[in-house]
Amino acid sequence: MNIHEYQAKELLAKYGVGIPAGIPALTVEEAVAAAKQLPGPLYVVKAQIHAGGRGKGKFKELGPDAKGGVRLAKSIEEVEAFAKEMLGNTLVTIQTGEAGKQVNRLYVTDGVDIDKEYYLSMLVDRATGRLAMVVSTEGGMDIEEVAHSTPEKITTITIDPAEGFKPHHGRAVAFALKLTGDLNKQAQKLAGQLYEAFVAMDCDMLEINPLVESKGGELLVLDTKMSFDSNALFRHPDIFALRDETEEDPAEIEASKYDLAYIKLDGDIGCMVNGAGLAMATMDIIKLNGSFPANFLDVGGGANKEKVTAAFKIILKDPNVKGILVNIFGGIMKCDVIAEGIVAAAKDVNLSVPLVVRLEGTNVQQGKDILANSGLPIVAANDLGDAAQKIVAEVKKAA
Questions:
Q1: Domain ranges of the chain
Q2: Of 207, 213, 340, 394, which is the active-site residue?
Q3: Is 332 known to sit in a ligand binding site?
Q4: Helix residue spans in 47-123 (DSSP H)
Q5: Is 333 marked within a binding site?
Q6: N or C of the chain: less Cβ packing under 10 Å?
Q7: HSE of 350 in the Cβ direction (CA atoms, 13 Å)?
Q8: Does domain 19-110 have CATH number 3.40.50.300?
Q9: CATH classification (class only), 250-398
Q10: Closest C-alpha to 274, from 298, 310, 256, 257
Q11: 223 is in an annotated binding site
Q12: pLDDT for 194-239, tens place per residue?
């Protein structure tokens, strides 16, 4: 689960992290009122969407010469003007794709006199089973280019969660940022605070870009992104309450209600599979056969009629879907139960696109018999390769 920048900063502030003063706003009037509560005379007006690259982004409605989603205002009047331009319009960044995202919230912050920008992030390193703290002296909007062109300027410090954060980790962060004196001490302290916050809140990722050194000699978090392990949110009802469903795909929200792992893609063949690895393989083989998957959908190991029916409805809400491939390996899940669910779901949704089903595993023959005797135009497949070939052919034939 992702949250907005202002929400992430409010959470980090609870751990003592230095944050410039800022106030969220949902309307132009609230943005103006927020600016009047800040010291000034410089203000920063920031669009709040779940995507990076806002500073370099462009608003669809404002033309190619318009400023991006992060703007420096030199007066209350400019704050008002920027708020009017941003709210309700669509911001397109390198991370949103061409569709962009509508800006429904703003964050008005106090301006900071910046002396130097740095980069600092934390994430779970799946390869080592440790937490990784990634730092660079080259923070700012071009960090992706730094990673591509000069990766030697990026340092990764790994922390064993069984051992926890130690003073030498803090010193390593300060050394990598080439900080001395009081700034060195601040960096060490900040690294410890971020580690504490990351673990306590079950974060997946915490990115600060930029972390800035102000002309007054303070290390401040100027921008931050934060995401959380969805499986741990039951421990954090306060964090779950920060969820902004307007930033999420409606189909993905619906899928989460049935404990379905669903991600919309750009293809035309809907996929319903049990198991993430099998789902990835299914998408790959569809593409290998010359078509593209419309979604990733893992119904899990305990799917029942209700979940299968919900999965079909979610897939068919995508107008691009021209056919559906069901690929089930029945281990814990029994093929006859899944077959009954598929038949019931197909009748319930009045299925009008080609459907290819590949079943394997427990009670597979009973499952195939149920599909064959259903009276529905369900195409049976013998294996994954056969299934992919058949659904691609069916979709092309129906086109």
A1: 19-110, 114-240, 250-398
A2: 207
A3: yes
A4: 76-86
A5: yes
A6: C
A7: 0
A8: no
A9: alpha beta
A10: 298
A11: yes
A12: 999 999 999 999 999 999 999 999 999 999 999 999 889 999 999 9
